[in-house]
Write a structure and sequence with these properties.
Length: 363
């Protein structure tokens, strides 16, 4: 029997949130990808793990649309193996990942993987130099037939479905240029997809290593993949554990770490930090009302992590170069914890190049 506190502490340690300093080469979360949704999201996630933001450049890193179609940051040296790792497990898996785009393809007798390959062929031909996403989309819409396209009411135009567009980009050997809005796509220099993902980048293993113990459904929900496909790719070298009465799995090599981990740190996690991406949300936040506050449909806040527990949410408030961090506490915070939060807020302000004017605590 494993209690949720052990699980939380294990993840703090596995994700190196307790680390003082590190480099991209030895940063574990770059194996699964660091989601870059929101201001400086990936850079802040890495900074929380001791990585100097100056190391996050297009020379060392590559930004790709991968898991759930979201932009994720990886080491450039790993791009071929990452491309193999994020490949759908099957045609059914591809269909689940591209959501409603699969229906017209099926009606037209076009397989989901075949459709992604077809889109990738056109994308490679279109993007032979840095190209704005809108231009790529317009040229794809002119090149591809109706089953690939949808009418977009907000734009009053016909586009390729969004998820096939995003998931085909890596197949086409395309990356997203860092710090561009709207996104700019460009060819990955020397790109060659590996024949298979090795254990380090295998997404099922990576989830168990960084967000375990877990069930196949947890991993499937993270990937937007069918549970059947995840079960078919479940590792053999796992140990069974019970968390709050639920049977889960952990990589056998991590059993000792689960038993001994200590998560004694204070961190201001970004809204899409990997720690908050675990799909056992009631383990992270047992109270349903608190969970709704942390994961609303729109406009997620960040999370205040103290000694392995999420103890509140935070949001930035900026006026000119003045910057305030507004914390909503879920329990009374000690003076030492408030000072640690202020230290984190100072680091966040420096990271964003603004001046911290204060930390407001409410709730």
């Amino acid at each position: 029997m494993v209690d949720r506190r052990q699980v939380m502490n294990f993840r703090v340690r596995a994700q190196q949130l307790d680390r003082g300093a590190g480099t991209p080469a030895d940063t574990a979360i770059l194996d699964i990808g660091v989601q870059n949704t929101g201001p400086e999201a990936a850079r802040w996630a890495l900074a929380l793990r001791g990585v100097d933001g100056r190391a996050v450049t297009g020379t060392e890193m590559v930004l790709l649309w991968t898991v759930r179609g979201a932009p994720h940051l990886y080491r450039r040296a790993d791009v071929g193996r990452v491309a193999a790792a994020v490949e759908p497990f099957s045609d059914a898996d591809a269909g689940k990942r591209i959501y409603d785009a699969s229906r017209p393809l099926k009606a037209a007798g076009i397989g989901n993987l075949a459709a992604l390959d077809e889109i990738a062929v056109h994308m490679r031909a279109i993007v032979d130099a840095p190209t704005v996403k809108g231009d790529v989309s317009a040229r794809l819409a002119a090149a591809l037939p109706e089953p690939y396209l949808r009418f977009c009411r907000p734009c009053d135009a016909t586009h390729l479905y969004e998820m096939p567009f995003r998931l085909a980009a890596v197949r086409a050997g395309l990356e997203l240029r860092l710090d561009t809005s709207p996104p700019i796509l460009e060819p990955i220099a020397g790109f060659r997809r590996a024949s298979a993902a090795d254990d380090r980048f295998d997404l099922v293993r990576a989830y168990l290593r960084l967000l375990g113990p877990a069930t196949p459904k947890h991993v499937a929900d993270y990937l937007d993949a069918p549970v059947k496909d995840v079960k078919a790719h479940w590792p053999d070298d796992v140990a069974g554990v019970t968390v709050d009465g639920e049977a889960r799995s952990l990589l056998a090599a991590d059993e000792e770490a689960l038993a001994s981990a200590d998560g004694a740190v204070t961190r201001l996690l970004g809204p899409y930090d990997l720690f908050l991406q675990a799909k056992d949300r009631t383990t992270l936040v047992p109270d349903a009302a608190r969970g709704t506050e942390l994961w609303p449909v729109l406009g997620r806040p960040g999370a205040v992590l103290v000694d392995g527990e999420v103890v509140g949410t935070w949001r930035p408030r900026k006026s000119g170069r003045a910057f305030t961090v507004v914390v909503r506490q879920w329990r009374s915070l000690s003076g030492a914890t408030r000072r640690a939060i202020t230290d984190q807020a100072e680091l966040l302000a420096a990271h964003r190049g603004v001046t911290l004017t204060g930390v407001e605590v409410a709730g």
